[in-house]
Amino acid sequence: MQGFRTVIELTDQLWGVKHNGTCYELCSTLKGQRGKRGIMARKRTLLAVFAHPDDESFGIGGTLAHYARQGVRVVLVCATNGEAGEIADPSLATRETLAQVRQAELRCAARQLGIAEVIFLGYRDSGMKGSPDNQHPHALINAPAEEVVSRLVGIIRRVRPDVVITFEPNGGYGHPDHMTIHRHTVAAFHAAGDPDRYPEQGAPWQPARLFYTAIPRSVFREIRQRLQEMGVDTRDIEERERAGLGWPDEQVNVVLDVSDSVEAKWRAIHCHRTQLGPKSIFLHIPEDVARTILAREYFALAYPPPAPGERKYDLFENGTVSLG
Ligand SMILES: [Zn+2]
């Protein structure tokens, strides 16, 4: 297996990445093969952690499908069953059946997007800020942080992702569940590689990168302007824009072209039938315009901290760092 050692040394030299025992995935994969027979490269893995069934499709369905098409193992955590969501058509669900129906809608979307595994944490949807759902004892926002973080650490250590994606701190538009799962995911991301934290949750694993989904403010502006041109009432969007809707453009680090996966995203969005009510933006925008908007997805790099103005065009670009 002398040949492997040469390749490893070359890899280290070419990429200059051997710092404090860390090296890029290719390097550690090759090292791992030195004592084995055959070549079994570890599959690149992406873990997305969101709050409700539909967050994955409306938000970054194109990204999930794009990477699944490339052979990346895509795993999704959904913290609640979306019990407080709308019921667009009473023939689809009742308040009592909505959780079950939305789980099925998410499984439908996962099939469209090529998601390999969906993990439901089973908390209750906390509803919009100020709604009675906030008070429910099983609501995600009322779950002890230690409990949720511990469970997420266990998932990270089992799934061993290279890249983790969750909401930005404001959850896009301030939904309490989005903000809560953001906090817990960030905490779990940083705890998962520490052998002293949650030792009962398995062997440590430090994912290389953490990204936030982050729709730039300019994109919301563009969507609003298009809707206005079509005579659609956009007061709701304007109000949200004034409240800080969207992410500052200069802090968007990745603009991902997902035009190869727009069809899958479109189909996944339409799996979430209970959420496509009369106010849905997708019922107002002509399909060709919607598809143009859907062809790009945006991320802020949270870890490792990006250089000011750093832009990437791939979540896995430059390889991945594997610790330990
Ligand atoms: Zn949501």
Structure characterization notes:
The chain is α/β, with parallel strands linked by helices and 324 residues long. It has 2 domains: 1-42, no CATH class; 43-322, Rossmann fold (3-Layer(aba) Sandwich). The protein is built from 10 helices and 9 strands. It has a 7-stranded mixed β-sheet with strand order 4-3-2-5-6-8-7, with helices on both faces. Strands 1-9 form a two-stranded antiparallel ribbon. β2 (45-50), α3 (55-69) and β3 form a beta-alpha-beta unit. The two termini are 22 Å apart. 41% of the residues are buried. Zinc ion binds at residues 51-52, 55, 175, 178.
Question: Which features would summarize this protein structure in a list?
Answer:
globular, about 325 residues, binds zinc ion, two-stranded antiparallel sheet, alpha/beta, disordered C terminus, seven-stranded mixed beta sheet, Rossmann fold
Number of strands: 9
Into which percent range does the helicity of residues fall?
25-40%
Order of helices and strands: HEHEHEHEHEHEHHEHHEE
> Low-confidence spans: pLDDT under 50, at least 5 residues?
1-38, 319-324
User: Which second-level CATH architecture of the largest domain applies?
Assistant: 3-Layer(aba) Sandwich
CATH fold title of the largest domain: Rossmann fold
Largest sheet: 7 strands, mixed
Q: Which homologous superfamily in CATH is the superfamily of the largest domain? A: LmbE-like
Strand ordering within the main sheet: 4-3-2-5-6-8-7
Q: Pairing-aware structural class of the strands and helices?
A: alpha/beta
The helix tally amounts to 10
The mean pLDDT is: 85
Overall morphology: globular
Q: Please report the distance between the alpha carbons of the first and last residues.
A: 22 Å
Radius of gyration computed on alpha carbons: 21 Å
| Total of domains | 2
Strand content: 5-15%
Heteromolecules bound: zinc ion
Just give the CATH class of the largest domain: Alpha Beta
